[in-house]
Amino acid sequence: HIESEKIMVASSENSIARDQSTSSHANATNKIIHGEIGCQCINATDILSSLTDRSCTITTSSGQHNGILLTVNGPCVEYDYGSNVCLPHDMMVDPYCGQLSSSSSNIIPERCYRRWCYVNAMECMGASSERVFRSKYFPAGSGVELYYSSSTCGSSASDWEASPSQQNSNHVLGGESLKVITAAYNIVPYVYKQNSNGDIPVVPGEEYYNNTIPYEGVHINYVKSLQQISNGDFDVDFVHGSRASLRIYQGAPGNAAVQDVVDGLVDIVIGPIWITGDRLKRTSFSMPIQYDRTVLVIPRPGIRRSYAEETSKVLDPFTMGVWLLLVGMIAVTAVLSVWFSKKRSKESSVYGRLAVDEFLQKGTFFCSGGVKQDETSSLPRKLLMFGFAFFILIVLSAYVANLAAFLTRSNSSPVTTIEDVIARQMNICAHPVLADDLKLTHPKANFVFNQEGKELYGLVDDYDAGKC
Fold this sequence. Notes:
Elements: H1 2-34, H2 45-49, E1 55-60, E2 63-69, E3 76-77, H3 95-98, E4 117-119, H4 121-127, E5 133-134, E6 147-149, H5 158-161, E7 176-182, H6 218-229, E8 234-238, H7 243-248, H8 253-262, E9 268-270, H9 277-282, H10 307-311, H11 320-339, H12 348-368, H13 379-408, H14 418-423, E10 427-430, H15 435-441, E11 446-449, H16 455-464
Helix pairs in contact: 11-12, 11-13
């Protein structure tokens, strides 16, 4: 009985050991096939099949069916590319993997054997320590959010990241020909065209629509340099813009050029095109290659020398409130002087006359800087006049001390900030392309926008014409 029990226990232990081994093997297999727990493969079929603008046709022995282009020139892959399981998904689709390498060793790169799959980036970032990368086939701004992981499949992404198909190599555009225009204006030295006389007009004429006349300028050379660096990855065909867009955006050739891109007539606009809020709503821009500062240009401050302005300087040492206070003090002193006078009368008209007389007398004392003493006056009156004389002394000292500075001060009062301009309700000449942005930033300002299509030159013309 005891031996039998030992056998039963041993048998049970062996069974548990076999179950644990089987479970561990199943978990390891699941990780290899579907990825680590917390960062498992996802099904991206719906996402890829929805990209109709990248649709392509795959031909197999069983017929033809739709697929998706990973780049402009392929490859064309199945909708389940990178989905559900850890596999070397690039082995049969990447031209660097599906064919023998062009190197002398004729060895398929190791990265082609690496297993990977698309994953949920946020889930992997929060629930695992696996490395996750954004797919370079669907960069930021493409509207497609697809991320992949190699480490979740027990592999490495280092050699895949360094592969020619994932770098900015010479095959990004595959020799694509791009139609390029500039806005219909000449800004030397950035972009311009010469007319038949060899001149460079501010607003180009028919030479703008003549594609046989070459564009010139720093930005043109910049694009040509990029073309050389790419080793023929793309070709540039410089053409002219649409007359219809110029008619729609009269006075704003930059907006007209952007509209041509939106309408699909051309691929790129080059030149000094400002990135404004309105333009960003309509199309995308590259990283800026040049920055402009918005500055406030004011005339050289002048000096006002009119007779009225020069004579008004004698009042500048005191503010209007101080002058009113002084007049009030003279009036009070005159009234008290009458009150303490021996010439008191019961008739109000006499008091009024005496008050006016005293006011004029005390005003004369104040302006002359002295006080007349009357030996026959009463003691209260003498004390009043003593206080008034001391008041005159203090006021005259302060006035004379400041008067010299105000007499030599210039009457010019230039504006130095746009807030000063707005406060004085002065006109500001500005570029019409910036109209929406400037009005939003400074809604109370009086802006003048040139509508003749002369761009920056029109702004300067308005300034010289005194419109602002």
